[in-house]
Amino acid sequence: MLDDLRFALRQLVKNPNVTIVAIFALALGIGANTAIFSVVNAVLLRPLPYPDADKLIVLRERSNAFERGSVGYMNWLDWHAAQKSFTELALVRRESVNFSLGAGVGSPERLRGVRASSGFLTGLGLKPKIGRDLSAADDIAGAPNVALISESLWRHHFAGSPSVLGRRVLIDGLAREIIGVFPAELQFGRNPDVLLPLSEIANVPWMRNRDNHQGFWALGRLKPGVTISQAMTDLNAIAIDLEKKYPQTNTGRRVTMRPLFETTVGDYRASLNLLLAAVLCVLLIACANVANLQLARALARGREIAVRAALGASRWVIARQLLVESTLLAVIGAVVHGCNSRADTVEAAAFSRGKDRFPRARFHHIRGVAGWRARWCLARLANFKQRIDFARAARSRRPQRERRATQPPHALWSRDHAGSARNRSARRCGTDLEKFLACSERAARFRSARGRKFRNFAARREVQNKRAEGRVLDPVVATHPEPSWR
After folding, report:
1. What is the pLDDT of residues 254-266, one digit of tens each?
2. Confidence at residue 262, expressed as pLDDT on a 0 to 100 scale
């Protein structure tokens, strides 16, 4: 096996052009698939970072106008009081807040936030890193202004100090007391940095209006043994009772439920699956191109394989040698992709460090694979193809130069034969006539001085012989005077 590996390595080094093309084709196909699969794995395959995430349900209101509308605060109060299917049923919505350490201290920042009721962290199965969670008292109007901050914000602004508890900060211009730090696993609400209670908006008139829906969702955790269909039946029964009590605002309103995982990734599942299928097709095309290159090499090595078979090599030995070469080529392509992806990951981490707490490194890596690396590979392939075309053109000119060296002198000045040879060669190598003529002129400039002397000498002897015999000179030859040098 080691002998086969060494021989395969020598064969790859022996044909560097084909090897480089095959390696970069495989690296490009493997890189695109690795990048897209990393996104599919993170979004579709990896479970949510919450305990028993399959029991987390998102509730919305359905009406004649909206299939999945927002939940009204007053309707949620009735759901929360009458439901029997959830251990926790919290009200939550995303918000953007202005955050600063205090008046005249530092510069304010625009951060992502979440406004939620008590039981939000408990329903997700999370506990604060330090401090306490929101309680039922924080949902009542007139409660103290409090807030929880994220672990990343805690470490960035307060160096992870436990003394942050009780400190007052400005959030949307209102002084609030920090009562806790929630863990980094909280991703609901697009990686929020601040968690605010409902107390300050509980008695606002637009919150007390049952016909007004303020952009909230309801997030619940199913009780053990309760299915989503049973919970929907329970909540729809409550919605029917509310329709009877408040016909002007709740007519036709029902409850819709979806698992949190489907709510998070359901809209992207079809697009990601289509993208994964597309890059798989790219990988198949790359493998087909490499297979064609390997087949061409195998046909060119027909004499070598015949000699090895004549010397006693079995079919299995020959097939094993070819398989080892193909496997080595695939491994080198994967290693090349791994080295480049590692460099992209380091560059992305350096790019995103300190600028944003959103994990953008893997998306920057995807842009690297699909961006500069793809353009570089395509440019190298185009340059390599052009070099092959020029090599074919120059090789097709060699027999013509040999024929012209043995032809009579008057044929040297005839352009019909050379022109037809150029056209045939241009059609045979598949290049444009202008490119081929440029290559031919370049090859003509590098002819040896000995060849030029031979042709000049032959033409001069022909002119001298015709003058000695008194014959009329050929008009083509006569138009070119005899060289003056001896």
Report:
1. 999 999 988 888 7
2. 86
Same domain as 328, residue 404: no
Distance between CA 125 and CA 50 in Å, rounded?
6
Count Cβ atoms below 10 Å from residue 111 Cβ, excluding itself: 18
Q: 340 falls in which pLDDT band (50, 70, 90)?
A: low
**What is the pLDDT, as a whole number, of residue 212?**
85
Please tell me whether residues 137 and 260 are part of one structural domain. yes
Instruction: Note down the domain range covering 407.
Output: 387-478
Residue 403: band (very low, low, confident or very high) from pLDDT cuts 50, 70, 90? very low
Mean local confidence (pLDDT), 307-324: 84
Residues belonging to the chain: 486
* Residue 382 resides in a domain: no
Question: Could you read off the pLDDT of 271-284 as tens digits, one per residue?
Answer: 888 888 888 888 88
Do the Cβ atoms of 442 and 435 come closer than 8 Å? no
Tell me, yes or no, whether 93 and 183 share the same domain: yes
Quickly tell me which residue has 């968690």 as its tokens: 195
Residues 201 and 305 in one domain: no
Sign of dihedral through CA atoms 309, 314, 319, 325?
Answer: negative
Determine the Cα–Cα distance for residues 191 and 454; give it in Å rounded to an integer.
83
